[in-house]
Amino acid sequence: MQSIQVAIGVVVNEKGEILVALRDPAQEQGGLWEFPGGKVEPGEQTTQALARELAEEVGLEIEQAEPLLSLSHDYGERRVELAIFWIARFRGQARANEGNPIRWVSPQTLTGLAMPAANQPIVSAVLVRLAAEAAR
Ligand SMILES: Nc1nc2c([nH]c(=O)n2[C@@H]2O[C@H](COP(=O)(O)OP(=O)(O)OP(=O)(O)O)[C@@H](O)[C@H]2O)c(=O)[nH]1
Ligand SMILES: [Mg+2]
């Protein structure tokens, strides 16, 4: 089965809120909330794809991206390989460049959002990371 490489950013602001975007209802997985990101294009490094997707989708310039976790998920008709990065340093104001609503959400709200099935371990890792930072 084909495997799709995807770069994803978990963007966290100074209040400890996380940036999410609503997937277009017409897309596959439409109507679910997701972290900004997208497919790595041929010839591109994962971090280049991450920078491009964040600029395109939410208008942010990454200052620092740290690997958070990588996972693969089988959606049946396709398999995705997700490389997820923690982004606590960035430039710009998040805006919905592609017309899909975006939101900054608390960890509590994040836990309750409807997201793609692959995202459950990502949300867990985000909660652990935020708790660790709050305890410092
Ligand atoms: N961006 C993003 N994609 C995710 C998440 N979780 C998840 O399973 N995916 C999957 O990753 C794949 C690629 O993401 P994408 O649709 O954003 O790709 P893209 O921005 O390049 O879109 P395009 O192909 O319409 O240009 C999709 O199959 C999507 O379902 C997530 O939190 N964020
Ligand atoms: Mg995308």
UniProtKB/TrEMBL annotation:
<dbReference type="InterPro" id="IPR015797">
    <property type="entry name" value="NUDIX_hydrolase-like_dom_sf"/>
</dbReference>
<dbReference type="InterPro" id="IPR029119">
    <property type="entry name" value="MutY_C"/>
</dbReference>
<keyword id="KW-0227">DNA damage</keyword>
<dbReference type="InterPro" id="IPR003561">
    <property type="entry name" value="Mutator_MutT"/>
</dbReference>
<keyword id="KW-0479">Metal-binding</keyword>
<keyword id="KW-0460">Magnesium</keyword>
<dbReference type="InterPro" id="IPR020084">
    <property type="entry name" value="NUDIX_hydrolase_CS"/>
</dbReference>
<keyword id="KW-0235">DNA replication</keyword>
<protein>
    <recommendedName>
        <fullName>8-oxo-dGTP diphosphatase</fullName>
        <ecNumber>3.6.1.55</ecNumber>
    </recommendedName>
</protein>
<keyword id="KW-0234">DNA repair</keyword>
<dbReference type="Pfam" id="PF14815">
    <property type="entry name" value="NUDIX_4"/>
</dbReference>
<comment type="similarity">
    <text>Belongs to the Nudix hydrolase family.</text>
</comment>
<keyword id="KW-0378">Hydrolase</keyword>
<dbReference type="InterPro" id="IPR000086">
    <property type="entry name" value="NUDIX_hydrolase_dom"/>
</dbReference>
<dbReference type="InterPro" id="IPR020476">
    <property type="entry name" value="Nudix_hydrolase"/>
</dbReference>
<keyword id="KW-0515">Mutator protein</keyword>
<feature type="domain" description="Nudix hydrolase">
    <location>
        <begin position="2"/>
        <end position="130"/>
    </location>
</feature>
<dbReference type="InterPro" id="IPR047127">
    <property type="entry name" value="MutT-like"/>
</dbReference>
